[in-house]
Amino acid sequence: MPQTFEKLAAPGVQRLQPYLPGKPVEELERELGITDSIKLASNENPLGPSAAALRAIEQCYRDIHYYPDGSAFKLAERLGARFKLDPACLTFGNGSNDVLELVARAFLTPDHSAVYSQYAFAVYPIVVQAIGARAKIAPAYSETDANMPLGHDPEALLGCIDATTRVVFVANPNNPTGTWMDTATIKAMLERIPPNVIVVLDLAYYEYLDDELKPDINALLARHENLIVTGTFSKVYALAGLRIGYGLSHPAVADLLNRVRQPFNTNLIAQAAALAALDDEAHIQSSVQMNKAGKTELQNALAQMGLSCLPTMGNFITVNFQQDAAPIFQGLLREGVIVRPLANYQMPTYLRITIGTAEQNERLLAALSEVLS
Ligand SMILES: *Cc1c(COP(=O)(O)O)cnc(C)c1O
User: Fold this and answer.
1) Which residues does a 6 A CB cutoff place in the pocket of ligand 1?
2) 248-276 per-position pLDDT tens digit
3) Per the confidence metrics, is the pTM higher than 0.85?
4) What are phi and psi of 339, to 5 degrees?
5) CA angle 271, 77, 244 (to 5 degrees)
6) Residue 264 falls within a domain, yes or no?
7) Residue 75 sits in a domain of what CATH number?
8) Which residues have C-beta within 8 Å of that of residue 241, sequence separation ≥ 6?
9) How many structural domains are present in the chain?
10) From ligand 1's centre to the CA of 200, what distance in Å?
11) How many angstroms separate the alpha carbon of residue 112 from the centre of ligand 1?
């Protein structure tokens, strides 16, 4: 019987590898007989949400018998103002992953292709293949590239674009590598992508980029009507569990995305919390500062342990152990430190480690010394 169902599935779905989430922390602790574990596996903000977001949740949760505002009107106005865009430029998603899926549904068919880099974010292949569209994977820079090991290679991405290509996905910085392109490179690449190809610039970690690496989103959108910038409340805004993200684009593109969107895809609590989180600049600042300090500390300590890390502009560090990293991952688990193995990215010697609080980083380093000794 299960085989029959497999054959009934759309061809793209049959070929899909399911996204492998980590086990729930409680389950893991039970299995390993440990308590007090720390989760550095999914690039969440270790400081947690802003107090203002929590207050906004308390003020609205008794209203959940009502449907949410399907257009997320207030949030569209607020985000529009932030980016100096008309609210008609916004598309909201149940996480920015939802927006990525809207892009695939609106623009791809089995006769079309999407281009993304090797080692790009795992959700791109999922949304492309679910539609049955063809994925064209651009080779990344090599592991030994002095500039940006395993990073997106713009020439390779451009080289993959052909007459069938409708969408190019670019993550800046990319997850799981942490690698990035500078603003001049992004601009030059956009100039060379045909205007009938949609470019998704996934800026999930935008706030963590060094200031000189932050592209001028408004200027890029003004120049490129084929551009969709995606953003999320899951990372620095620390609302991953509520699921809310957005796309910024030309209103004509947003109109198409909103046509395929479920009418109530973002929930009432998420909208209220996102609105409050946006205004809490101080919380964002301290989150970014803590990440910066933790990044330097971890990079130095890991280098001292003789480990090589990919360069990163995210809130995570991807470490190459130059050996199968699965036993190291398991060893860290037994020490109560949960990180992310990357075998599903064809990076079996790497682990991705979210930068934590100072205390969490100390625990990670102590656990790592223990496991590697
Ligand atoms: C975490 C992440 C996202 C955010 O996903 P949400 O659905 O908004 O939680 C998007 N893109 C990349 C590259 C990410 O790492």
Assistant:
1) 43, 95-97, 121, 171, 175, 202, 204, 232, 234-235, 240, 245
2) 999 999 999 999 999 999 999 999 999 99
3) yes
4) -120, -170
5) 30
6) yes
7) 3.40.640.10
8) none
9) 2
10) 13
11) 24
